[in-house]
Each structure stands twice: as structure tokens, then as C-alpha cells.
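User: Predict the complex.
Assistant: Input components as received:
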Amino acid sequence: KQEVTQIPAALSVPEGENLVLNCSFTDSAIYNLQWFRQDPGKGLTSLLLIQSSQREQTSGRLNASLDKSSGRSTLYIAASQPGDSATYLCAVTRGTNAGKSTFGDGTTLTVKP
Amino acid sequence: DTGVSQNPRHKITKRGQNVTFRCDPISEHNRLYWYRQTLGQGPEFLTYFQNEAQLEKSRLLSDRFSAERPKGSFSTLEIQRTEQGDSAMYLCASSISTGLYGYTFGSGTRLTVV
């Protein structure tokens, strides 16, 4: 059974700081890994998707890496802004028919002005 | 394309009542997923469809839950005889079954059972 862990559960940083969010998973037989952002009471917004054959993906100030062999992914946020404050979730899609995804419980980020 | 649409946004119901939620996926997406999320937790898989076929249903789902996707378009999730433990955010997502398989989520339906 796939288990996904995100540490820390909460993180507070001053504006402008670069930061890294961590995601670990127990089963390396994955199809892809996706990072999402969730604002309070809202749905999930996709940030980056990394296929199992890829090592990293970049979008603007965001960079996500994937190391299947160690069961780890990181989301790097450069030059953080107060608008980045949200909960960040990672989801791992299994490597069979790529249907079900397993989510971590997220890291709640607060960026202070 | 307006993305994934879920209705209603909020639902308050009395324990024991039946409720039904609707999800309209992105039109070209043939896969549709239902997840449930409680406060402070990540989404938990409930079920998913490819076109009109329900391909997987979570073992955690009791027989009070049923989902349909007639004609492979919109989907409904029904909860019968609601319990207070059913209070959660119900999230719908859609994707294509080829290529990147990335999810697009709707805004969710918040269910409160009183």
C-alpha cells in the first residue's frame, strides 16, 4: 500500500526567502507525481506534474524534483511572496493503470510580509 | 472550457437523509475521479470512471455510497442515510487517459451532516 508523507506539516518564512517542501512515498512503482496548491475551503490547483521518467519540472518560481529510487520529491519555491501562503499537497499516481492517486496530508505554508 | 464544475458548493443535511452531488468534468477528459477530504488531511480516493465504466471503488467506501457516470459525461455521487462522519469536502477531478494523466480538480462540495 502506497503511503505519502509530507514534512513539515507547517512552515512559516519571511517574504523573499527560498524554501523547499518535501514529499516522500513508500512504493517507487509510480506513474507520476503531482504537486498541488490548496487555499482554505477551496479545491486543488495543479502546480507541476513529473512523469516517472523525468527528474524535474519547472514553472516560474517553482521547481519540482523527483527521485524514484529514494522515494522522494521536493518542491522548491524561489523568492517567496505572501500570496504563496497556502497548503501544498503532493499526490503519487500508481504505475499500473494510472487511476488512483495517493495524497500526502500537505504542508501549510505561511509567508510573512 | 470552464474547467471542472461541482454542484452544489455547500450542502447541509440532517443525519439519515440522502444527498446527491454532481460533477461536470472538462469535456475532452474521459476519466473522472471522486475524492473525499476532511480537515487537515489530504484527499482520500473514493472511486473513478473511464468513460461510463466505474473502474475502481475504494474498499473504505460503504454500500451507502454510489456513483454513476451515465453516457460518460457528468457524474453523480449519492450518499444514502448520511451520518455525521460523512461530513467532509467531496472533490471531483478529471483527466485524459493518455499522455500526462494530470488531474484537474473542481472546487468541491462541502457536506455538513447535522
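Chain B touches chain A through 27 residues (CB under 8 Å).
Let me know if you want any component modeled separately.
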